[in-house]
Amino acid sequence: MAKELKNLTKRSEDYSKWYNELVVKADLAEQAAVRGCMTIKPYGYSIWEKIQEELDRRFKATGVVNAYFPLLIPKSFFGKEAAHVEGFAKECAVVTHYRLKVDEQSGQIVVDPAAKLDEEYIIRPTSETIIWNTFRNWIHSYRDLPIVVNQWCNVMRWEMRTRIFLRTSEFLWQEGHTAHATGEEADARARQMLKVYGDFVEGFMAIPVVRGVKSETERFAGALNTYTIEAMMQDGKALQSGTSHFLGQNFGKAFDVQFLDKDNKPQYAWGSSFGVSTRLMGALIMTHGDDNGLVLPPKLAPIQVAIVPIFKSKDDLDKIEARLQPVIEGLRTKGISVKLDNDDKKRPGFKFADYELKGIPVRLAIGSRDLEGNTIEVMRRDTLEKMTMSLDGIVDRIEALLEDIQRGCFTKAKAFRDAHVYECNSYSEFKERIGDGGFYLCPWDGTAETEAKIKEETQATIRCIPYAYSQENLGDDMVSGKPAKYRALIARAY
Amino acid sequence: MAKELKNLTKRSEDYSKWYNELVVKADLAEQAAVRGCMTIKPYGYSIWEKIQEELDRRFKATGVVNAYFPLLIPKSFFGKEAAHVEGFAKECAVVTHYRLKVDEQSGQIVVDPAAKLDEEYIIRPTSETIIWNTFRNWIHSYRDLPIVVNQWCNVMRWEMRTRIFLRTSEFLWQEGHTAHATGEEADARARQMLKVYGDFVEGFMAIPVVRGVKSETERFAGALNTYTIEAMMQDGKALQSGTSHFLGQNFGKAFDVQFLDKDNKPQYAWGSSFGVSTRLMGALIMTHGDDNGLVLPPKLAPIQVAIVPIFKSKDDLDKIEARLQPVIEGLRTKGISVKLDNDDKKRPGFKFADYELKGIPVRLAIGSRDLEGNTIEVMRRDTLEKMTMSLDGIVDRIEALLEDIQRGCFTKAKAFRDAHVYECNSYSEFKERIGDGGFYLCPWDGTAETEAKIKEETQATIRCIPYAYSQENLGDDMVSGKPAKYRALIARAY
């Protein structure tokens, strides 16, 4: 079994296969019996819970409150915002009936044709429409604004090509929706939430991101501006990890959400929305994972320290456990999650491989000889480095080690990312190199034509106009030769 | 506006109307634009979050792990367990298509007939079928058992008559699903979770419940036994507040979930399931609410203490806030949630009424005169009692007061409940009195015929065979006159 665990395809052999295998072998998730949908297994879900908990805390610190809106959206709602319908009302699950019955002839369960709905419902692909329809009843005066609500929920988009966590028909996410008295305020909220996302993904998930603004083509359907954080996976491809949108008055007008301003004049409400999803699980796996399995930054790890006692007899185990007791208590007092794995049905070698596969940041092993020498073996998952440490002061050292691993995960990922960001002013060079992955900073004339040409010819897309790179002295667009308006970040993406 | 807030129908006038009004006026939830569905508003949702958080903690302490299974269930799955299909596959939302398109003639958005699914999907009304289908791949050996998973999610049942929180087409809940090597263990888990529910609802929500076992008729579809907690609302009607089910091998057999036992022999897995839902919000409102609005037991209250400063000038307010600062910090240090409401656009009278309506357990008011006297006005929501307290030692006194309110809510509800539980051995007396509400402990012959007759003639149902009441010296069934097998708890119910 330990051998089977180790039997993971190497990233260098087939990155895509490595990912698919790791998701299943590390017990994160699996394909469900429903087309394009996944089952998130307990271990995977416990990581998602960590993400949720921390994000929810950060949201609430900015004044976000949670609520819950219906799963189903009347079909007619999608027609109300012109751009939105194009983007979302197409590939989606449609509820047409509300009853099954047993067919008298065949004895089979069939849809009851008498129970056809007058108007079909769509399972929400995103909730702007139903929420703005609700806002109409909540907003009458400027005193009712701003509204800053969020829901944690499931959504559904009927994707043709699916991949666990990255693109599934059903996925879990949070969607924040806000309404404001002014456009400045709505736009500021969208930017603020992008900052929350960026800080969270870098500070908690140890994934470096590029912050920027989307091109018009890549904007959220119905938005005036979409802000994004883009992470680089180990194959050099981009993964959009979170977006926020300035919606202008588009939904306010589409759903007739008006309020009386301070001068008692009617105005349409301004909006923003923002979301991250279980896609972040994919970013996590593909940023930190290695050929031995998952690597979890400590802040995300449901178990931060696994302890494997090596024992031949019950007496040995008792002695080891007695010595470990204060260590475990000391760690827990510091808020560190510890698992003591004294299961005698599994061999230590199996346990080591399993904890590696699952990405547990620190693994301790201790046998009778260690006990005599007052030492313990410490392995850090990120570097696979083994150390022998004295049991004296071990609690403080492990605490420091966890902090070091958290930093190390980010530093390593950032070094990789930075080494694969290139300035590129030549389209022929771009076409030559894009197959190797990486982020390319290229002069762009700002037109959708150029953008479409790049996408068609290279399968790469403009990920964003990045904030962090200079937008001066751009020269000419590498494709059209016209004067460039932006330095765009271009990459192939998940 | 304060007047409008107060304009709540009295319970004695129309209990049902009082409930409907209170749900909306206290900002808990409202009817959505989707038939039979609700929007849970931020204030209502913040109470639901308190329920979730505490229950989740208690579940995990018993070894429950969370996971996520698909929203959609293939239609054919429902046919596999005979009793289950009867109970659940009838009134449900059916997904038949996966695409919309714009109709070229009308320009309207229509369902694309070309995108018809080969097999329809049902939006989960409960997830036993899809989860047991998944268990088949998870369970091979007795070493894989037990499995104790739970999910927090939305479910949908196409209810004809709906009422916010009590019976809606979509609702939020948790559903736990477990698999075991023996029937004893599965049954013990079902009983254990009922104990968790009972302890939680009484200890945290301050709602007294009767624990017991359901009659065969009232069992969960597919279960061998259903355990229940039944609460009494202020109109004397019962509200089933949580159930757990011993499923025997029914789903193990239906979905062919077999494992090799210690003797290497194949066995079907044994199961249990358990759930509570946003119905608990209804129980909360109808147990504790009064003619002034919601009454929240402190453990459930998102805001436990609201402080209203009474001031005429900015200078007054500054002085009051300065004096309150250490009080607020002291309360927060004790983990008590405090809101200082210094909004000068609303009058104190409005705030008082609003906090009463929203059920905030303790409301403090303090003006310049109080400051001179070093006192503060304290109102407890449960009794509406007003007290003047010294500011010295106020933090400890408020902490004690919150504990007293928590106890008081339970004591009051239990006294009401106990005063409305009657032993009744005569069917004519039962028929006369059932209209007044209350729980009736009646001798029952154990037959479905008698049960059906009672339901038909009185709209009352056997809520459970209660554990806490003597099952000896029962005499004869009050309806059939045959020897009674049980003393059943009979009541009209939500």
Question: Helical content of chain A, roughly?
Answer: 25-40%
| Largest interface, C-beta within 8 A | A-B, 63 and 63 residues
Number of strands of chain A: 24
Q: Which stretches of chain A are poorly predicted, pLDDT < 50 over at least 5 residues?
A: none
Strand ordering within the main sheet of chain A? 3-8-9-15-12-11-10-23-24-22-21
Quaternary state, please? homodimer
Average pLDDT for all residues of chain A: 96
What structural category do the secondary elements of chain A indicate? Answer: alpha+beta
Q: Largest beta sheet of chain A, briefly?
A: 11 strands, mixed
Strand content of chain A: 25-35%
Provide a count of the helices of chain A: 14
Distance between the termini of chain A: 32 Å
Radius of gyration of chain A: 26 Å
What overall geometry of chain A do the principal axes of the alpha carbons give? globular
Layout of helices and strands:
The structure is a homodimer of 494-residue chains.
Chain A: H1 2-6, H2 15-25, E1 29-31, E2 38-40, H3 42-61, E3 65-66, E4 72-74, H4 82-88, E5 91-102, E6 109-111, E7 116-123, H5 128-138, E8 147-156, E9 170-180, H6 183-203, E10 209-213, E11 225-232, E12 238-248, H7 250-254, E13 258-260, E14 266-268, E15 270-277, H8 279-288, E16 305-309, H9 314-333, E17 338-340, H10 348-358, E18 362-366, H11 368-373, E19 375-380, E20 386-390, H12 394-419, E21 421-423, H13 427-433, E22 439-444, H14 448-458, E23 461-466, E24 486-491
Parallel strand pairs in A: 3-8, 16-17, 16-18, 21-22
Antiparallel strand pairs in A: 1-2, 4-7, 5-6, 5-7, 8-9, 9-15, 10-11, 10-23, 11-12, 12-15, 13-14, 18-19, 19-20, 22-24, 23-24
Helix pairs in contact in A: 3-6, 9-12
